[in-house]
């Protein structure tokens, strides 16, 4: 079984519709979904706040590259353009981590680096991930770390800006609930 943690985000257009479209795309393969979180922009570009969520998806026989390609397909469907690195976008789908038959995939391929090399720094990834899976663990070059501990270690000002939203029709599914 292949399992991926996907970080999805948007800060242009109908952001909630864009996140919903990704969730609908993965359908029954979504085994956990965080709440939608409003998050201040991470990175050097001044821009509007994002809406972010984390989906955990599972399916047999799906390679890491397949998960990435499906994310790209969702981005294309949202008319995503890549103008400025870390700039505003209608949809971003990042593959945070993949495991196959329980083993974490570690790869430094620039086209698909796993786990995502900046995930451990990002409140907009870690806080929603913790919401979907309170026991989540992230592989890092210095060993596995509980996502709860990574969140604790973030600067307080990055944590407080991330706010859980109550979005009509968006059901939170916690790991193990299904
Ligand atoms: N784990 C990953 N998830 C998604 N894309 C990845 C990953 N590793 C490498 N990439 C590559 O990164 C490229 C740029 O992706 P994108 O424009 O979404 O980056 P970004 O969202 O601006 O920045 P960041 O990578 O810091 O999230 C993609 O073409 C993709 O091939
Ligand atoms: N809060 C937040 N900030 C970002 C995001 C994102 O999804 N959420 N995506 C970015 C593109 O790489 C850059 N900055």
From TrEMBL:
Coiled coil: none
Gene3D superfamilies in alphabetical order: 7,8-Dihydro-6-hydroxymethylpterin-pyrophosphokinase HPPK
Superkingdom field: Bacteria
Pathway in which this enzyme or protein is active: Cofactor biosynthesis; tetrahydrofolate biosynthesis; 2-amino-4-hydroxy-6-hydroxymethyl-7,8-dihydropteridine diphosphate from 7,8-dihydroneopterin triphosphate: step 4/4
CDD domains: HPPK
SUPFAM superfamilies the record matches: 6-hydroxymethyl-7,8-dihydropterin pyrophosphokinase, HPPK (SSF55083)
Catalytic activity as recorded in UniProt: 6-hydroxymethyl-7,8-dihydropterin + ATP = (7,8-dihydropterin-6-yl)methyl diphosphate + AMP + H(+)
PROSITE patterns: HPPK
Keywords: ATP-binding, Folate biosynthesis, Kinase, Nucleotide-binding, Transferase
EC number: 2.7.6.3
One Pfam family it belongs to: HPPK
InterPro entries in the record: Hppk, Hppk_sf
Domain named 7,8-dihydro-6-hydroxymethylpterin-pyrophosphokinase: residues: 85-96
Classification via PANTHER family: 2-AMINO-4-HYDROXY-6-HYDROXYMETHYLDIHYDROPTERIDINE PYROPHOSPHOKINASE
Protein name (database record): 2-amino-4-hydroxy-6-hydroxymethyldihydropteridine diphosphokinase
Species of the source: Williamsia serinedens
